[in-house]
Amino acid sequence: MKKLLTVLVISVVGLTSCSKYSKSYSIGQELNGGIIIKLNSNGTHGVIASKVDQVTMFEYHYYEESLTIIDNYGSGWRMPNEDELHTMYSMRSSIGGFKPWYYWSNKYVNGKRTAIHFGNGTVTEFCGGGSHLCSRAVKDF
Question: Pairing state of beta strands 30-31 and 34-39?
Answer without folding.
Answer: antiparallel
